[in-house]
Description:
Radius of gyration: 34 Å
Helix content: 55-70%
Bound molecules: zinc ion
Strand order of the largest sheet: 1-2
Shape: elongated
Structural class: mainly alpha
Amino acid sequence: MDNFLGKIKTNFSKAKDEAEKYSKLAIQKTSNLVSQTKYNFAVNDAENKIVTVMAEIGEYVYSEYLSGAEFPADVAAKCEDIDALKEEIASLKERIADLKDATVCSSCGEYNSSENIYCAKCGEKLRQTPAADVDVTPAASDTEEDTAEEE
Ligand SMILES: [Zn+2]
């Protein structure tokens, strides 16, 4: 019996030693992981800063292009890509504005109530003539012809 208990005790202390060993290892691994995470954050941070600076360089080049500066053909082509994308954005915003029954300012991109004649943000004129009628009864008019009669 003593022998049996002694064996249990020995096994227990062995297990305890093992557990301590593993928990020390785990702490080491954890602090290793914490360091890795820290370094990864630092790498991401630096990468994001590069992206920001790249964007700033791009914005500088693009604004120079807009004011007529000469650039190598491939750089100019990239600027033209931006022009095309800006046009696409403008037309998409127009579509959103139609859905929202709003008017997009061509100068600042602000959404304005379709009743506005001038942009609420920058004061740009939103259209040439005020709308003939702003229909407040949407259920009654589901055809476009209603508004087209007064031209
Ligand atoms: Zn505006």
